[in-house]
Design a protein that fits this description.
The chain folds into 2 domains: 6-149, Regulator of G-protein Signalling 4, domain 2 (Orthogonal Bundle), CATH 1.10.167.10; 154-280, no CATH class. The chain is built from 12 helices and no strands. The chain has helices at residues 6-10, 20-31, 34-50, 55-60, 70-79, 83-93, 106-116, 126-149, 154-180, 192-207, 211-215, 247-280. Helix 3 (34-50) crosses helix 8 (126-149) and helix 9 (154-180) packs antiparallel against helix 10. The chain is elongated, with a radius of gyration of 28 Å.
Length: 286
């Protein structure tokens, strides 16, 4: 999974469950920080559109070349392309009253707001865009990949956890019965399948992975994946179709198989330890 990067998601070169749509829904309904993605996508789109302007206009609006005389600034403000869009972006992502306010450094915000008065050059948003990107890359994206590896829904995970606990309780009740009835220790070995299945279900719920679904290349849809996406995104980037290259899915399957192999050894080890403890219990506690 290390070869799957945030750039793969943003450039839409990956397919479900690691698509841009999947990431947006995860940020919207799980992380509650979709503003980072919205702003970064807008920034990339705006860069492309701004760079299509005539070279002399771009040069004139470069922050380091802007005059500081009030008369010239007043005239320059009227000449700025995309002024209304920039004002809307600042209102949405950098206003303290906005529901989509970005969590950026105070110094970054203050510098951006000061420069935005004089220019609409995309470079004034670079620092904020990088902060949003690195926040997603080092935090939200890590959890998103962990969630994507799971092929079970929360409801199934809860069911498996409860079922595993019930099986383990039944196993220990069986041990208690052999003790009360003064049965030999080796009679407790009949409980081995119950313990194996119980531990398997508990580990399955902990990992969120079902072995049968891994080898069938199937997964359960998580609740938030069926929720609609907002249509109010100001980004002009349009969703492209998913890539037909199954690279990301293959990466997920490989990671799931690696986890299953580790889980297999854990199940065997835990089962052996539990059975040893059960066999060590005296035939009679009296």
């Amino acid at each position: 999974m290390n070869n799957v990067t945030l750039e793969n998601i943003i450039s839409q070169t990956s397919c479900p469950p690691l698509s841009l749509n999947d990431f947006r829904k995860f940020l919207t309904y799980i992380e509650y920080s979709v503003e980072n993605l919205d702003f970064y996508l807008w920034y990339r789109s705006y860069q492309l559109r701004f760079n299509q302007l005539p070279t002399d206009v771009i040069e004139m609006l470069t922050p380091c070349k802007i005059p500081h005389e009030n008369a010239k600034l007043s005239k320059l403000y009227q000449m700025q392309p995309f002024r209304d869009e920039i004002d809307a972006v600042i209102e949405r992502f950098f206003s303290s009253n906005s529901m989509s306010e970005l969590n950026v450094e105070v110094s970054t915000r203050e510098k951006l707001l000061a420069e935005a008065v004089y220019t609409t050059h995309p470079s004034i948003f670079h620092a904020a865009a990088m902060e949003a990107y690195h926040l997603m890359e080092g935090d939200s994206f890590v959890r998103f990949k962990s969630e994507a590896i799971k092929n079970l829904s929360p409801a199934t995970i809860h069911f498996r956890c409860i079922f595993g606990v019930i099986l383990m309780i039944l196993a220990f009740l069986g041990v208690s019965m052999t003790i009360l009835l003064h049965q030999g220790r080796w009679m407790r070995l009949v409980l081995t399948p119950l313990i194996l299945v119980g531990i398997s279900y508990l580990l399955s719920s902990y990992r969120g992975i079902c072995a049968a679904k891994v080898y069938a290349r199937m997964r359960e849809i998580k609740p938030y994946e069926s929720f609609p996406l907002s249509n109010t995104d100001i980004s002009t980037c349009l969703e492209k179709g998913y890539s037909t290259v199954d690279v990301v899915n293959s990466a997920i399957i490989q990671e799931q198989k690696r986890i299953l192999l580790l889980a297999f050894f854990q199940i065997v080890l835990l089962s052996v330890l539990v059975m040893l403890l059960i066999l060590l219990v005296p035939v009679s506690l009296s």
